[in-house]
Design a protein that fits this description.
alpha/beta, Arc Repressor Mutant, subunit A, Rossmann fold, three-stranded mixed sheet, 28 helices, globular
Amino acid sequence: MIRFNVLGRFEAVGLDGAPVDLSAKKPQALLAYLGVEHSRPHTRDRLAGLLWSETGDERARHNLRQALSKIRGRCGEVVKSRGDALQIDLERCSLDVVDFERLSGSDDPDELRRGLELYRGELLEGVIPREPVYDEWLPVARARLRQIACKTCDRLATKLVEHDRLDEAIEALDHRLVMDPACEPAHRDLMELLARVGRRSDALRQYQACADALKRELGTEPGAETKNLRARICDADPECSPGMEPPAVREAPVLESDPPTVAVLPFDNMCGEEDAYFVDGIAEDIITALSRFNSLRVIARGSSFACGGKDTPEREIADKLGAQFLVRGSVQRAGKRVRIGVQLLDARAGVQVWGERFDREMEDVFVIQDEITSTITSTLAGRVEAARLAQARRAPAERLDAYDFLLRGKDHHHRYTAEDCKTCIDMFERSIERDPSYAVAHAWLACALGQAMGFKLDDLNKLLDDCQAAAERGLELDENESECHRILAQVFLQRGNFERAFKHQERALFLNPNDDRTVCAMGEILALGGKPEEAEGWVRKAMKLNPYHPLRYWMHVARPLFHLGQYEEALSALAHIALPRRDELAYRVACAVRLGDPEVLERHLAELRAANPNFDPQRFVDGLYYRRESDRKRVLDALKDAGL
């Protein structure tokens, strides 16, 4: 009988104890679902929609058949068919999750302990199928199983106390607090047990751990019951005076509540100025990779690079960015070898959580990045190691040049000048020449062509067509490249196809929920699409993700405020833009005329006319990508009422 372990990392083990190779993620996800939901059969349509909802019904059924065939070929007939329904066959296989739930209902402490031993980690640790329906089910299932594990710890501790096995009960409660550091009743139970076995100093330390965890996780302090317990323990300890604070303790492990916030600071360049693009590119790629994990909140590149001075204390940087964890590093490159040092710092505690040095051939540069991001993610999220951005792979020789050109192109792209824009397009095209299958290079080429439209480097229609072609080619190579979806959303917005723009924007947001540009773009599209009441919140969220966001974000705040009739607030947002462009100046005038303040209106009219002497309201409004004609008319009427 084959054994499937789905709590923690997926494992399939044969009768002889040898591992069974079932490395494909979709079959793993399917088996985990059938195992957790083993009590009833599931229709094929339900299972196909669960894991392939975006491929169409026929293709989804085909993919399901392929997954079942792969399972059957490697594991035997472990999934039984009942007409059009499927169910896991527990006579032909066993699952740790089934045994875990059974043992957790026992009254025997030894069986409860065995059940907890089966809970090696979260359900399908490290697997993120990125399928909307499955991604709705998985967190709910994980939360339910985690709750069972917590309750099992509580019951085990109670049973062990009843059997006078106090040291084992203390271990059970320690385990409980690793899973849920902010569980105040568990802290109290542990304090009482520690005091009961004569470990009063440890009990007082436990109170401090409780206070720290509650403040960190919930922003609160221990309740009266916990404080009274501390006072009673302190009264019984002759070495503890009433006003005395308990000894300092190491903070409790940080597990998931709100996602931990991490900022990747610019890496130290140990190479030379000619390799600055490479050093910054390594750090930037780590930011991008970490941003794709829903278990983390990642500070945007612009903010973290602005605060990353060597002489600034880590605590000060963390406070500015609103981050708990900082990533520092250095890069030294010599010929075909590269040495990358990385440290993960808990800025609040003032300690280094993790550090590593990677000394590799350049052929391993992708493996290095994946290794770093995976290790940082698993460290921050405790037992839940998030899925990797892509399976670690050894880059073929032709990709090394492609990667080098990509980093050079990104370096020029971020300088945001017309000349640098031309250079970055050339770099991205040369990257694609070296490796035509490099999806990320196509994505960045599309982004650069979009930037070229702003600088009017060529015919706008041609640039738009080329931008769309590059992004679509990137998606052909990697359908989960979020940058391509984000750019295509903007392309179709300019083409007036809001349905396709929304589709790509939502997909980009799903694939990369922590990217401030993607979040802000959602607010922009909603505002132009006739939903200003939703738009502002998205842009504000983007600003929180990137405290040093581009000033143009304020324009995306102002537009929905204008359409909501909040003209004073809209003007206040636009005031943050020190060097306003035509669009910002026009919206200032539109807001000012609706406020009815002649002095304010005259000032903003003068600014618009000085910067754009031939400003034509009709032509301006015709160029706005509104979905509803009524929104366009609202802007035009305001500009005309202002005397333009």
